[in-house]
Every structure is written in structure tokens, then in C-alpha cells.
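Q: C-alpha cells for this one, please.
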Amino acid sequence: MKTFSTYKNTKLITHANHCIQVIHSHLGLPLKD
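A: Here is the predicted structure, written as C-alpha cells:
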């Protein structure tokens, strides 16, 4: 189940990055890579 755990963590990180992008776009800030 280690693979599934890693997959879940990746999904959480991706979701967090998406939230940051949405917040930045709402604030009109440039996105960082």
C-alpha cells in the first residue's frame, strides 16, 4: 500500500498547488514555477 500512500500525497500536493494558483490569480499575482 506504499504506492497508494504516495499517490494520495501527490494528489494532496497537486490540490494545494492548484489552490495557490487560484488564490494568486484572484489577487492578480504572478505565478511562480
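A few notes: The chain is about 80% helix and 0% strand. The first helix runs from residue 2 to 27.
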